[in-house]
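Is adenosine-5'-diphosphate placement plausible here? Inputs below.
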Amino acid sequence: MALEAETKSIVKQFEYTDDDVNQAVKEFLRQMSEGLGKDGTSMSQIPTYVTGVPNGTEKGLYMAVDLGGTNFRVCSVKLNGGGTFNITSDKVAVPKALMVAKTAEELFAFLALQIKKFLEKHHGDHFEQHIRRRMTVSSPDGFRDEHAFRMGFTFSFPVQQMGINKGTLIRWTKGFDIPDAVGKDVCALLQSEIDKLHLPVKVAALVNDTVGTLMAHSYGAPGSNGAVLGAIFGTGTNGAYVEKMSKLKKPVVGEYDASTGEMVINTEWGSFDNQLNVLPNTPWDIALDKQSVNPGLQMYEKRVSGMFLGEILRLAINDLMKNPDISFFKDENSSTNDLRSTTDIAEASGVYKMWGVDSAILSVAAGDHTPGLSLLRKGLDDTLHIHAAALEDAQSFKAIADAIGRRAARLSAVAIAAVILQTGKLSDPELKGEPIDVGVDGSLVEHYPYFREMIHEALRIVDGIGEEGAKRIRIGLAEDGSGVGAALIALVAAGMEKNASNADYLGELRSGAKAAAASEDNEKATSD
Ligand code: ADP
Ligand code: MG
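Reply from A.M.:
I modeled the complex. Tokens:
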């Protein structure tokens, strides 16, 4: 029948073969090297000034905030020293209007306000004391630094980093568009709003979520030599890995600890292959790009991450709905309805609106193995107001959603494979047979059923990895990655402040992180 044939034709266009994967891995390696050589390439390969990954423990209470793209998360992380930590966290959705605010101030004032609310709610004592001190000490700046919480600021947009707590925004991604902020130091923007509210908080470190994930997973993964890659598959996608300084050919300005011979590189792989040398490009990818705020940019991310998969799906099913030759989500075709007698779609349904379909529905579709697709049909009803979908319509929806999700997972494998090959760890004789740890974070990889399994399946067919190599690659969720990772980097930064000489901050980081290795299973208090 027509619907089945149309569905098959759409699904086919999302197929991403083993050959495609291998070809893309080669191109990914080429673009990585290009980015290590000079500025202005598609993959930015940004030096992070973090020159090693942790493996031990430290004491102290740190704050961490995370602006990821969808949510703003505020947490405090107490590293107990004896190998344990506690996390308290709150999260709030960033209002859509603020993502395209007129001024940077509007967005950052909102962020500072959330920090204030968090402190009042969870650290009332500290907060009260601070306010009291402010009222009795004549020079607020005189004590502010000493008593302030050190905070790691996870800011997951491309930033030109100039120091551990200084970096200017290169460009917005993930639907944000506040031109006023581009070129400004995002730490200074946040600090200035924090100061306006008189909060006892110092922005001590600027952290990319990928770096936080890498750091957190390095001490979190048991029996590990440290993770080689931290990767995000959330609203957007990106990765950070440990690179040899000898391969970093472009100049690195400012100070860093050169003794390790390594530096963590933030790849900004969301913009891999903006030139479309190898990326797939279906009519729906093209349509999505055209309507996005940044056409021609973040082309890899637009095929992989949570912000976009739902929209690709929406565009594809809209073509089916508009096709006069077939009946899809229409009454005539609903003979097998078991919920209501006729299919109807509410006018306000997200299927009619740009960005109106959340990628979460792909996870529902992928996870529904019931013969009647009752879970998906309920999901369609609940989230998209598509009432009483017929079974065959739900089957078409699922087939297309699954194809989009599978392509995303296989594309994700391209980045992971290329980075692992780039590090040379699989052929390092010292590591013979040992696991290669990759820490991942983000709703997509966390909630999409079998996402990691599909990545693994693709890794097995990559030239230079193969069955044997893939067996050694462990992809683990870096839970609380952004909180613990950012806290660790804030700890490092606080150490750098104390001995401005920058004496042994890496040593401090190493010893500082040791106990945290054992801390994964520790008691946590989360109020997400
Ligand atoms: P952030 O990127 O802000 O750190 P997340 O990692 O939670 O936040 O990612 C949010 C993105 O993940 C959104 O684009 C959302 O559509 C998508 N998402 C949320 N839940 C799911 C799910 N169950 N399956 C697939 N994607 C999801
Ligand atoms: Mg995130």
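Short version: Confidence is low (pLDDT under 50) at residues 138-144, 499-528.
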